[in-house]
Amino acid sequence: MACCDGLIFLMGPTASGKTAVAAELSRRIACEIVNVDSALIYKGMDIGTAKPGAAARAQTPHHLLDIRDPAQSYSAAAFCRDAAAAVRDIQARGRVPLLAGGTMFYFHALEHGLAAMPGADPSVRGALEARARREGLQSLHDELQRLDPASAARIHPMDSQRVQRALEVCLSGGRPFSQWQRAAPRAQPPLAGSIHRIGLDCADRARLHRRIERRFDAMLGDGLLDEVAGLMLRGDLDLSRPSMRAVGYRQAWKHLCGHCDFAEMRLRAVCATRQLAKKQLTWMRRMPNLQVHYSDRSDWARIAAEIAAQTAAETEKQTGVYQHHATG
To answer: What is the CB-side half-sphere exposure of residue 148 using CA atoms within 13 A?
Structure first.
């Protein structure tokens, strides 16, 4: 089994086949998979996140899955810290970290670092979360508009995590969030070593949209509504939590609360997933040196073989040698 040097970033829009390609790629190189998806970190959210199952995890070690309860918050800074630790651990065993997922800002933060910001203030954060539950997110966004119009203009009113974080910094950091972002130096990127950037896409956008529909219908068939109903019964979750605002969960929650019927819920979820895919593709177009593979035919084995060959060729160019690791 050949092994390339450095790291592999495997990214793509939702339903582009990242999980399948990662599994195929793990058969060709000595790698371990690091999750780069902000929803897959949560325990008990398996169906709606298309979380890799027991068989996939038995085949290849996976990192950063099920590391938070859905009631807990998780920041990009925490992800960078956890991902860097996982990468060091994998490399210490002589294996390749394969960072796979669709949260593009996480990839960006890993490679470029994050602007130094005030740390979390538990008292301010707790007060904002309580206010969001009591008054709604629009109230918080209105206050952000008053304190920091620049941030309010680029943060969607329903993006609870970013609205609350921007307000937290405004209230505890002494100046608007946008000013911190412009003035603060960026932290040292947490990852070192050569990065092989791989993107998955569909040349036929209509085909990607059909995949998104089929994928969500499969989730419904597998029991997504039952999964969300179980989360609702806990009593400590609501739509102000970042976990419950994940695409699919948010729409299912509203349906189970009687805000829309099944057909409307399905339509809203599919449309929201398409919008997410569009944003992911916009991020990808900005990334330099990204090798794009088109997965229209769902030929995951072929794509994985091409990626393995390309990354090995890049390593040979950089080091002059191929490295070979025994399977294990």
So the answer is: 26
Q: Where are the domains of the chain?
A: 2-114+188-324, 122-183
Residue type, 126: G
pLDDT at residue 325 tops 60? no
Whether the per-residue pLDDT at 98 is higher than 90: the answer is yes
Quote the strand ranges of the chain, DSSP E: 2-3, 7-11, 31-35, 62-63, 96-101, 195-201, 290-294, 323-324
- Spatial separation of the C-alpha atoms in residues 216 and 224, rounded to whole Å: 9
**Distance from CA of residue 269 to its chain's centroid?**
17
Q: Exposed/middle/buried for 54, CB within 10 Å: 0-12, 13-18, 19+? A: exposed
Query: Are 198 and 31 contacting, i.e. CB atoms less than 8 angstroms apart?
Result: no
For domain 2-114+188-324, which CATH number applies: 3.40.50.300, 3.40.50.720, 3.30.43.10, 3.30.310.40?
Answer: 3.40.50.300
CA distances from 153 to 43, 173, 216, 248 (A): 33, 20, 31, 25
Instruction: Render pLDDT for 188-225 as a digit per residue (tens, 0 to 9).
Output: 667 767 899 999 999 899 999 999 999 999 999 999 99
Entry pTM: 0.83
Tokens of 57: 């995890």
Backbone angles phi, psi at 122, to 5 degrees: -55, -35
In the structure encoding, which two tokens stand for residue 278, read together? 């569009």
Report the amino acid identity of residue 54.
A
Q: Decide if pLDDT at 247 tops 80.
A: yes
DSSP class per residue in 40-52: TTBTT--TTTT--
User: SS3 for 296?
Assistant: coil
Task: Write out pLDDT tens, residues 59-94.
Answer: 999 999 999 999 998 988 899 999 999 999 999 999
Q: Is the distance from CB of 11 to CB of 107 less than 8 angstroms?
A: yes
* CATH of range 122-183; options 3.20.20.140, 3.40.190.10, 3.30.465.10, 1.10.20.140: 1.10.20.140
Torsion, Cα 82 311 292 92, to 10 degrees, reads 0
Specify whether the backbone of 48 is left (phi greater than 0), alpha (psi in -120 to 50) or beta.
alpha
